[in-house]
Amino acid sequence: MEKRDEQAFMCRQEGEANLRAATEVNAVSASLTPPAIMPIQLELFPGRACVLEAKPATIRSTARKEPNRRDGVSGGGTQRQTIELTGETLFGPAEKTPSGREAHKGGTRKRGNEAGQGVGGGHSTVEARDNRAEGRAATFIKRTKQGKAAGLPPQGKAQPRRKPAERKAPVRLDNARKLQRTLYRVAKRQPRRRFTLLYDKVCRQDILREAWHRVKFNKGAAGVDQIDIDAIREYGEERFLREVQQELRSRGYRSSLVRRVHIPKPGQPGKTRPLGIPTVKDRVVQMAVKIVIEPLFEADFIRCSFGFRPKKTARMALKAIVDSVNEEYLQVVDVDLKSYFDTIDHELLMRLVERRVGDVQILRLIRAWLKAGVMEEGKVTHPDRGSPQGGVISPLLSNIFLHEVDRRWCRSDGVATGAVRLVRYADDMVLLARTEPQAQMAWVQLQREFAELHLAVNQEKSRLTTLQEGFAFLGFEFRKAPGRMLLMWPRTKACRNIRQRVREVVRSFPSNGPVEAVIRKLNPVLNGWCTYFRVGNSNRTFHKVDWAVRSELQLWLRRKHQCAWGTARGRWSYHVLHERCRLYRMVGKVSHLDGLRRTPSEEDDQSRMREIRTSGSMRGGRKRTFARRACLLLYRVPSKTSSSKMVSFVRSAPSQFAVLSSDPCLRR
């Protein structure tokens, strides 16, 4: 270091300063006292400059008051200020002289894609000047210091950094889901392709394991072999799956008989529905086949179908009806098929399946399940039509069969091909039209299509109707009066069904049992029913169902404590059952669909206020009724215009509203 200082001092004394290397890239120094000696370029280190004397420290007390700061920036420093460099040196404009590395290579360096000198090569103003390249002009840059770099106080409360352990790992799909996605994408890109290599995927261990998990989750009763889910667990799940895989690979698998039972129809006392229950092994193999072939047909299914499809729910079907009604589709064709699952033609269904599935082994399995015998009360029959309702693969086969109807009414993107819209959930379907002739033509055409598919229409339940008369679909009653908005609420049959289920749950407990156990078993039933029917105008129905549930519990408690009916109702009242005992309450759980709820417009408020104001000539109860409506409008309509009009109206009749405003029911 001493040698370098001595050599620099001698160069200064002899006046042999190197003008090319002694350029100062930035402006003058930011210190209060300028350096006594200018930087000198040393031959020992080309491209670098060395300052002989250290710069005096900046006085902080006067730094903010002094206009001249470092880098020649005036006006309070660099905090949130724009820094502009002029590109000039101390001795005039900078010369385009190559640096040491550029001179060695024999050319000027270019940055980026044919960028000019200085582009992309800007340096911060805080960077040491003796580290800058030799002979380069300073780059024009605009940089702003903000936040902590500018010395400003922090804004708000800093958020703590997440620890690495708290970060959630990305969700990885299992092999079965990856296979389904691959098959779906290929089938979507190639609408006419037939897949001929599918049986080996059904025999895979991961597919069979996923099928077993789904069957185990669905539970279900035992088949004709009297082996249920618990028996398979005791036998060994892995051992059971290995045996099934070995049977499939050796082509030794044979389908078993289907046990038929009759279950009561909900809300229809005395009527039953036939249900076919396959064995657990058949359900696992059917689920494996469904996992493999379902993506192939999902690529072809249309959006107007919502039943028994992945990521499709009954609420979506209800939303489609509400949207169509709001678009003035008021003519309805209510369609009901007669014993649909028992009347499916096997040969026609197999031809529809062969459009996508070309694997002979898969087709043999599906045909064997369709032709499997049915055991009912010890008697075995072999039907030539229908698919057992209750089998794992039956819903998929039913959608494949009715897809032919969907194709004639909707395009692949879900848009109706004509002036009539179709909404289908499994075998329940509704046609919506704007005019009565369109609805009649649609009904004639639909009957012709059902005849081609060898399906029978229930003429007693199928009908042509309008929204003003109303119709039923998926447990809801739809009705729309002229000039009014659409209303939908649970059907009487559904209310009768939930009351019957509540009665069965409550009376299944002995009288000496605790009421907490009864409520614990009753709450999931009420929660499931309320979750489904909460999307409509169901608040009035929920009031009735809540009252029926409390009455059933009070009757059970009356028998338990041997007291009078009035005593039981007073002792276990609304407050005790719902708040202390935590009985599920449906009132207040309504969540309307988008098309069912609307905000009252200002014109509606004005017409209602005009009606209330003209009630001055009325007397007695009618005048009090209009005053009560005014109070409801005041407390329940959050409109500034309506509120101001209501205030003026209340001031005009203070005595009336002094009494009504004290009513706690009006303030809810």
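[next item in queue]
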Amino acid sequence: MSRERSRTAAVAVAAGLLLPTVASPGAPAAAFADGGTTIDGYYARQGLSVPFVDAVPLVGRFDGDARDDVLWYTPGTPTSGPDDAFWFGTGNSAAPFRSVPAPPAEYALVASPVAGDFDGNGQTDIYWYGQRDGGPRDARWLRIDSTWVKSAVDGFVGGGTPYVADLNGDGLDDVVVHYDTWQGGDGVVALRWGSRTGPLEPWSFAVDAGGQLLRTPPGVTLGLADIDADSKTDIRLFPPTPSPWADWAPRWMSRGDGTFAVPSPDWTPGTAALDRVTAGDIDGDRNGDLLTHDPTTGAVNALYNLGAGFYSRPDTAQLSRGTYRGVRGDFTGDAQPDVLWYGVGPARDELWLHRGRFRYDVDIVTSTVPRRSDGTNRLLLDLVRPPSSVPGPYRTIVFVHGGGWGSVPGGQRQVPTMSADPALLRAGYAIASVDYRGVEDRGPTLAQRASGTAPSFVDMVKDVKYALAWLRANGARYQLATDRIVVSGFSAGGHLAALAGLTNDHPGFQPTLPPDLAGADAYRATRIQGVIPLAGPIDATIGFRDHPWYTGAVAGLLGCAPDGQPLRLGQPPDQVDLPPCATLTLVAFDPVFYLDDADPPVLLGYNTDDPLVRYAHGQQLWNALRARPARAGRDIFPPGLTGGHGGVWLPEQTLRTFLARTIG
């Protein structure tokens, strides 16, 4: 069987990853060359020869040590074939694996394996999920005291794609099976919980908080990762390509009991045309990231997540052209995620070994505020700093998250779409992502939020500036250069960033600071040296009714309709009629109103094809900047950017030039 045919012959899933069958002929031992180039600050890539034909890799810690191993399993054979073997990790980069024959796989003909600790004894087990209808086709191998204990398990309907993940955060791995169609309709997800005391728990289906069966659209692929950093694995639905919703990725957020919260889909920018290969922790911060490979160009894109499920700018590496799949695991035992790439056809196999990680400080409490919609009274800040090998003090990019001016749970963990480039971190820039009060904090109903006055967008800007003062007061602790700070933000965060940057020393936007943050000059404590609004609304009237979501977000923030026409929001019983906005409200919303020659330099980022925040917003701010002769040469507006509302990718040289000019 050829490698291309074997790729589609069977599917196995390990560590929550979809793993199509691939293999490459070769010697019976791994050929490995130490050394190689560094990929985006994380990986050292090294050539590798996979010596198995028609085999599927399954990752787990099968020999009981602290390193991940690989079980190469040949589907369609009732017993072990010549290509069935364990690769045990050695921890030696010169020879990372040693090959050991695999035990007989009696269930191999009818099953696909997943690996995980299903009984909570700290050792990796194997669950064989049946691929045919009828009969007890499932089985499990439990690893107990370095031996395999095999037992049959009551089966389920065959077919489907199996995954493994800890959905309820109890430390036991669970089995997840996705059926693309079910009983003639859309797909479903079946669940089977791990158990400390006996066989796996009975099968159940994923449902929403009201007990309604959750359905998956045709052709989706599941990516399992902890999106919101609550120790429970969530499910992201990646659309087929091409697809009208190709850059939208619905999320099912696990509640830990088999039910899932289903918030609005968010964007995974740049994934629409790519061959998705792995979801999971890439950068070592324990949050779910995404690696994709484009078989046409060979490009590998890494999309990083700091906890709220919003991915950063792709960082491009390169494999040879051809079809690849990635298997993620800690093969060296250094507690960092490595990636084994195995190719189809002429594609060359490679092992990427993780080489260090950046430093994350999360959930830093910067201030207390009145009770918020999530029941807390805290504002938080997350800080990403360069590796310890990069000397400080670090220039700082402060990022303000988007989300329709809403109180986004974990919002401070939204990765800066512009500034989370690992190259910036390696160059000595720290990235702080800040939280702020949102419209949900006005009250639980739409009527309360739309008619409420606090927190207003002015209060939100004050929250951002309070975080600036906190960073300056604590700069020595985190090795920050406190006089070199740029503020950026995306979408609603871009609007708040523009206001924060263009209201330096404005008393109406100045927060009340305690003495330890205010220092000798409270205005200096909140002053910034540059501002980078990305897709930030400027004029509330531009494109106000172009998109229902955008209409509701702007009107909900202002409590009125900017276009001068009455507006009804919501549905009974939570419905509100909003009047036209007063002129003073519209003027106060617009950052251009506060612009003067003393304001810091501005780098604008707006996509020409953005369906929500129209390009005209950026043009309006740019025209106001250019109209001031004293600002000539200070501000930058790169033309021709595209990407819809899925993120703004500034040209690297433009960004570097602006940062060098403003904060060095």
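[queue empty]
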